[in-house]
Every structure is written in structure tokens, then in C-alpha cells.
């Protein structure tokens, strides 16, 4: 109950700040529309209003405050406008409609999951190699760290161009970008987890004459599970970001990234914000699903989360 109250309090505070921010952000657009409809605004011309600060415009035209939350193309849409757009594009549209966020979400989700699987598999394999090979630890880990310093927004077009040049199109280029973002958290978390058993536990296995494989399956892997799931939660969110970024340079017509792109082309800020919220909701759902799987797996293994 206390947690729910705290969450609701934070949401209420964000909503109040959001509604308040709409006033200075949208006031110029509202006054321009009011001037075109014949209303008297202060200052009277758009040129004079451009030189005036938003707070001064609000103070001089208080009658227009009520309209800043209902503009068709506001600079900053009000929360209820985003909520209505979300409702209309998820509940009231057919799943096959290209205006449905669920349709666009499933396109992005498919690339996200494929990239996440590739990135997670690659990350786990690299982590196992790094833990068991001093050479890989010295050679691969620094490059893995350096790879994450390259801005994905610059790398994504190059990946897509290279893959297109060799005939790879469709979902795979986006999945590769998703895998690029998701593999690093998995590598770091898995390496930390595989190295988490202390020296006494490793020595105990040696006294039992356990092989390297037995030490991995019976000690290192179970000990790494909490670290792995923490990394997977970061990785799935990063993978979703990668899929959305991968849709931007291709001029995709489907996917949440395509929805963002179309919104920016036509100045539909409400559409942009609703796509952003859809992406956030999708990421939260994926992380929550991983949390459920984590609890089940750790409970099955007898590990306390």
C-alpha cells in the first residue's frame, strides 16, 4: 500500500509539472491561432510575440491558458492528449492497421527479441571465454569496452549500409544493432557472476577432484544467475532502444521507430509522445517478464534473489 501510494504521488507530481510546462511551451502557438481567428492578443503581431518571453505572453494573455492543453499540434502535448492517442491507437484500431501502435510495437518487438537472443548468447559465450582464458581476458574485454564508446546513432547507418550491400535486409540489420547494445551488459554481468565464487569454494571443488566442466556447471554457473538476470534486464531495454534506432536510418514504414519518424516529419508531437510511451511500456513489460522468470529460476535453484 505504501509503495503504491509513493508511486501515485510521484506520478501526480510528474503530471502537475508536465501540465505546468505546457503553458509556456504552447502559448505562442495558441496566440497565433487566436490572432488568426480574430481575437485580440498582446502583442498584436507575431513578430513582436517572437521577441517576448513565454512567461510575459502568459501574463499578458491569461485568457489563452486554457487552450494550451488542447492544441492539435502542440510543442508539448498535455498528458491527457497522449493518453487519448494511446487509447485510440491501441484499443480502437485493428491490430493489422498501420495506425495501430500494437502493430508497430510487434514489428519492433520481433527485432528486439531476435537481437536480444543473439546479444545474450554472444555475451554469455564471451564471458565464459574471458573467465577461463587469460588471453581472452586481456585481449577481448578491452575491445568490448571500447565498442560501447561508439555512439549507436552513428554506428547504426553504417551497419545497415554494410548489411544491405551484401544482401541482408529485413529484420536482421535491426537485430544486429539490438544485439550490439545488449551483449555488453551481459558480458560484464556474467563475468562478474562467474567470478563470484570465493577461493574457499573453488578449493573445495579441487579437493573433490572436480573437473573444469563440473566446476562451471555446479558452482560458477549457479553463482552467476543473479548477476545474469540483472544484466538481462538492462540488456532487453538496450535491445529495444537498438531496434528503434535501427528503424530510423532505413526510413522504415513499420515499427515504433517508424512511428517516431513519421511524427517528426509531419510535426505530430502527440504521435511522437505516444510512440515513446508505447516503447517505455513495452520495455517495462519485458523487464517485468524477466523478473518473473528470474524469481522462478532462482527459486528452482534454491538461490535467494
What features would you describe in this structure?
The chain is mainly α and 305 residues long. 31% of the residues are buried. Helix 4 (79-90) crosses helix 12 (269-301). The two termini are 22 Å apart. It has helices at residues 2-36, 46-50, 54-60, 79-90, 101-132, 134-147, 152-165, 171-194, 199-207, 212-247, 256-265, 269-301. The longest helix has 36 residues, at 212-247. It is 76% helix and 0% strand. The mean pLDDT is 89. The protein is elongated, with a radius of gyration of 25 Å.
Gap from first CA to last CA: 22 Å
Give start-end ranges of low-pLDDT stretches. Answer: none
* Mean pLDDT level: 89
What's the overall geometry?
elongated
Beta-sheet strand percentage?
A: under 5%
User: In sequence order, what are the helices and strands, one letter per element?
Assistant: HHHHHHHHHHHH
Assign a percent range to the helix content: over 70%
* Main sheet overview: none
Content-based structural category: mainly alpha
Number-wise, the strands total 0
Radius of gyration: 25 Å
Total number of helical segments? 12
Please supply descriptive tags for the structure shown above:
mainly alpha, 305 residues
In short:
With 305 residues, this protein is mainly α.
Task: Please specify the SSE layout and strand pairing.
Elements: H1 2-36, H2 46-50, H3 54-60, H4 79-90, H5 101-132, H6 134-147, H7 152-165, H8 171-194, H9 199-207, H10 212-247, H11 256-265, H12 269-301
Helix pairs in contact: 1-3, 4-12, 5-6, 5-8, 5-10, 5-11, 7-8, 8-10, 10-12, 11-12
Amino acid at each position: 500500500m505504501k509503495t503504491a501510494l509513493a508511486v501515485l504521488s510521484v506520478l501526480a507530481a510528474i503530471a502537475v509539472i508536465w501540465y505546468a510546462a505546457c503553458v509556456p511551451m504552447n502559448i505562442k502557438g495558441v496566440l497565433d491561432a487566436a490572432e488568426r481567428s480574430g481575437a485580440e492578443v498582446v502583442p498584436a503581431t507575431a513578430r513582436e510575440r517572437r521577441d517576448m518571453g513565454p512567461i510575459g505572453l502568459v501574463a499578458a494573455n491569461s485568457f489563452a491558458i486554457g487552450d494550451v492543453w488542447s492544441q492539435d499540434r502542440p510543442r508539448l502535448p498535455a498528458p491527457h492528449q497522449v493518453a487519448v492517442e494511446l487509447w485510440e491507437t491501441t484499443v480502437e484500431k485493428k491490430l493489422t492497421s498501420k495506425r495501430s501502435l500494437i502493430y508497430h510495437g510487434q514489428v519492433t518487438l520481433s527485432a528486439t527479441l531476435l537481437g536480444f537472443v543473439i546479444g545474450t548468447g554472444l555475451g554469455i559465450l564471451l564471458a565464459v571465454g574471458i573467465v577461463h582464458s587469460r588471453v581472452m581476458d586481456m585481449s577481448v574485454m578491452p575491445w568490448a569496452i571500447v565498442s560501447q564508446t561508439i555512439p549507436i546513432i552513428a554506428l547504426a547507418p553504417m551497419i545497415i549500409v554494410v548489411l544491405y550491400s551484401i544482401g541482408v535486409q529485413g529484420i536482421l540489420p535491426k537485430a544486429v544493432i539490438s544485439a550490439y547494445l545488449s551483449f555488453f551488459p551481459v558480458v560484464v554481468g556474467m563475468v562478474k557472476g562467474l567470478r563470484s565464487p570465493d577461493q574457499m569454494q573453488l578449493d573445495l571443488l579441487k579437493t573433490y577432484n572436480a573437473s573444469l566442466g563440473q566446476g562451471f556447471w555446479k558452482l560458477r554457473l549457479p553463482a552467476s544467475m543473479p548477476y545474469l538476470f540483472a544484466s538481462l534486464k538492462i540488456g532487453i531495454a538496450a535491445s529495444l532502444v537498438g531496434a528503434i534506432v535501427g528503424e530510423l536510418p532505413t526510413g522504415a514504414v513499420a515499427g515504433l521507430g517508424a512511428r517516431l519518424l513519421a511524427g517528426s516529419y509531419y510535426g505530430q508531437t502527440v504521435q511522437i509522445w505516444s510512440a515513446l510511451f508505447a516503447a517505455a511500456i513495452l520495455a517495462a513489460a519485458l523487464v517485468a517478464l524477466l523478473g518473473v522468470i528470474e524469481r522462478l529460476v532462482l527459486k528452482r535453484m534454491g538461490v535467494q534473489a
